[in-house]
Fold:
Amino acid sequence: MDNTNQKKALINSEIALFLRGLIIGKVLTLIVIGGLLWWLLKPNLLSRRSINSSNQSSNTVSSTASTFQTVADVPTASFNYGGSTAWASIRQLVDSQIQSDRPELQLRYVDPVNGSPGSSSGIRMLLDGKLDFAQSSRPLTDEEQAMAKERGFTLEQRQVGMDGIAVVVNPSLNVPGLTVEQLQQIYLGKITNWNQVGGPNLPITPLSQRPEDADTVIFPSNTDLKGQALSSNVQYVYSTTEAVRQLSKTPGGIYYASARSVVPQCSVKALPLGSTSGQLIPPYSEPLMSPEQCPRQRNQLNTQAIKNGSYPIIANLSVIIKQNKGREQRIGDAYAKLLLTDQGQKAIEQAGFVAVR
Structure:
């Protein structure tokens, strides 16, 4: 019996040792597996932490971005404004957003009674007290500033965006492009045939808005060409819409206007422009879409060339503010501030222009 008990005790001891080893082995195995899992998952955990922290930081940035709601001193009233036809997409897209976010502000676009709408007519209406502020695609002239001073105030031009001035022709015209000087010489009547600038033997028919109603300019105020009379060959049009319609049936026609307005048009072709004939820059993003591809695929504005200054004729989009310490100055200042918010600058880009900040 004693031997039997001894055998049983020995077996029980061995079983206990076996079970203890088994348990210790499993525990060690679990520890090793857990360690491996932690090592494998560590990068993901770290990246999640990184993503969460970056999301938190981006949320902080977005919460500090300026919006239409953050602009103070926006007057509560109805105001008249007008001016450049190039601003049409801003009036449709951006101004509608402003009035949705700030319903206390009512903006009413006013067309000129006499003459065609544009930067010049808008500034003239502002000077005459018919507008509270104006939208312009060209710089103020010395004459406009002098007229304002005569009336007891000054005019400020506050830039809120950029556009290019594009030159458009009939799609059938085969010409590589123009220098700024050649373009100016065409409108002064010193270049009259396309064969003088590398094109076919075809008379040039220049189209333009009347200088007193001009929306854009190709003769900067700092050049000797300012003030020279345009050629008697120039045919005057009421608007860009009329010019585009005429160009589509005038093989030798040419017209200049806001790049944002004319580059996407299907019935005309925009020409590359340059300071020299060896540096021609297209106002559109290449490749050029043919009329057959349009309107399914429209040409888009070359915003990069406008932004970096390589495109030779830039138009600054400015709010013209009457500095008279009155309601006009207050609304003009508020409107410019709204457009210069982060939200306003993004909306200006969505409208097809280049932001300034």
